[in-house]
Amino acid sequence: MSAVGGGFGRCDAPRATARLEALTPFDRAGRRATESHASSRQLAGRTATITQDTSANPGDLFYLDLHTHSTDGSDDAGATVEGYLRWITGRRRFGYRIDGFVLTEHRRFDADRDYTALAEQYGVTVLRGIEVETDVGHVLVYGVAPGFYRDFDVTNVSLPYEDVFRAAREHGGIAVGAHAGRPRIGLAEHVDRRSVSVEGVGIVEALNGGSSDEENSHALHFAEEHGLKAVGGSDSHFVSGIARCLTAFPEPVHSVEALVEALLSHEYRPVAVEETHDDEEIRERSRRLQAVRSTAEAVHHEGGEVEYDHSVIGVEVEIGSAEITHEQIAAYCESTGDTNPLYRDEAAAEAGPFGGLVAPPGLLSALVQGRGPDPKVQYGNTTFMSGQRMEYVAPVRPGDTITGYASVKEVYEKTGRSGRMVFVVNRTRYANQRGEDVSANESSMVHRQVAPRKES
Amino acid sequence: MSDAITQRYFEDVWPGDEYIEEHQPTGDDVAEYLHINQMGRRAQTGNLDGRFTDVAGAARQGLARPIVPGAMSMALITRLVTDWMGPLGHLRSIEVSFRRPVQHDDRLRANALVTDASDEDGEPTATLDVFFENERGERPVQGTAVVVLPRRTQPAPVVE
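^ Those are the sequences you sent over. The predicted structure of the assembly is below.
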C-alpha cells in the first residue's frame, strides 16, 4: 500500500484520476485490496448522468441536492447534517461545485428543527422538505404550509398520490415523484403497468443516487415520454453519498420559497456531481446512460395497519450462551479470510492493545444465537435482514463464555422497491461470564410478501 | 497477516482517504460461512430455506439467484474496517443497512471512505462510510463505522 500526500480537508494537493488498477490477485477468500488517499485521486462515486452539454461553465449555475436523509429524522440514515456539511466543504476544495441540499426525511417533518446557524457556518444552503409514501411510490414535497401536515398523516405509507400532488400546490409548495425509475416505489412502473394517470404530476426525479443506472435510465425515458420535468438528488443516507446527483438551477436558491418558484419554472436539469467540476476533463468523464428498459413487475399492495404482539416490546430474554474457543475463532477467520494477528497469533496479540488474543468483532453474532421474543407480525411470507448495528464495549477472549439477551425494540412499516415492508428491530446485549457487557447488537428484520420466481 | 493489513495512525488519516477491498463471494464461500454460523444455530431449527445456497430455494423467496447472508456481508464489511485500521486500532461501532440483495458471484468493491477524523473529545477517532458497490452500479450494503486509532507519538492504550 502506498500512502501519499494529505487529505482534501487539509491541503490543496494536485488532482489525479481515480485509480483501481494494478490490484493484487484475489486471495483465498476472493478478496483483493487497494487504497488511495484523498489527495491522490478523485472521490467521484459511480454515478450515472443524462446526456448534457458538459462544456458549459459550471460556475454559472446553482447546484442543489434535492433528496437527502439524516439521523435527525430518517431511521435508515447514518449521516448527521454536520457530517454532510463537512463533506461538502471537502468536496469543494477538490473543485466540485455543491451549493446546498434539501433534507427530505422519511415520513417526518419536524418544524422545530433549525439548521440556519450550521448552514451559515459552512457556507452551504440547507433547506427542508419531506419524503412521503403514496400508493404510486415515494414523493418529495417542498415548501408546503403547515396545513399540509394537518391534511395528511405523513406516517401513512400509502397516501393517495393525486391528493398529495394537488394539496402540495394548494398549500404553496410542490411535489416531485421520487426515484421514478425504481420498481414499486417509483412512479414510472405504476404508470406503465397500472395505467396510473400522470395528470397533476409535473416533475419526477430522473437521476437518483440510490438508483441503478438502469432505473435512472427508465426514469429519464419516462419523464421524456410523458413531458415531465426532471430533477436530480442523491437520496443519500450516508455522508459520502451526498451530492452524487444534483439539480442545476440558473439562479441561486436559498429558501424553500425560492425552490418552489424555481421548480415551477422550466429552467433546471439533473446533473451528476462530476458535471459541476471546474475541470472540463472531469466533466466529460460523466458516463452516458444506456437506454435500457426496466422489466420489473409491479405489485400493488394492500394497506391496513399491521398486527403484532405488542406485549413483547422491550422485554429482555436470555437467548443462549457460547464458550469462545480458539477453534471457533480459527474457523470464523477461515470463513471470512481474516488474517488479523490479534485473533490467532499469540505473540503478536500479546504485544497488541488487548494484551492477548481476542475474538473477531463479528464472531459474537455468528455464534451466540437463539430465539428471542417474537412479536408474531401478521404480514408477509418471508423475512430478510435489513440492517445491523454493532457496538463493541470490551474485548472478547478465548475461554470467555458469552451470553446473549435479546429484546424487541420496535415494529414499524414503510414501503420500498419490494413493496410493503414491516420492520422488527431486535436488540441483543452480550455479556461475559463476569456479567460485564462486551457488545450490543441492533438488527432489523424486514417482513415482506414475495412471489416465488420461476427458476431459469 | 495479510500484506493488506498495516497499522493506521491518526496522524496519517484524512477525510477523503479511501480503502478498497474486492470480493467475489461464491457459493462455496457462503457454504463455508454458513457452516461456521450454524454452529450457533443449534438452538434453532437450522432451516435456512435455501435462499443462501441454491437456485430453487432462492426462487421460492422471489430471488433471481442465491444471496449472501446479511451476517456474512456484515462480517466482510467489519473485516474491511479492521484491515484498514490495523491491529492497534479499536473498532467502536459499525452500522450497516442492507438495501439490496448481494448475490452469489457478485463482484463487490468494499469501500471504506474516511468522512471525518477528529480528536475533539480527546480520543483520536475516525468516522468512515463503508459500502459495497457491485458491477451494476448499486450499493447493496451501506453503513458507517467509528474507530479509535493510535497516534504515532503515543503508545497504543491497552484495552482491558
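Residues 213-226 of chain A form the longest helix (14 residues). Chain A has three domains: 1-41, 48-288, 310-448.

Shout if you want it in another format.
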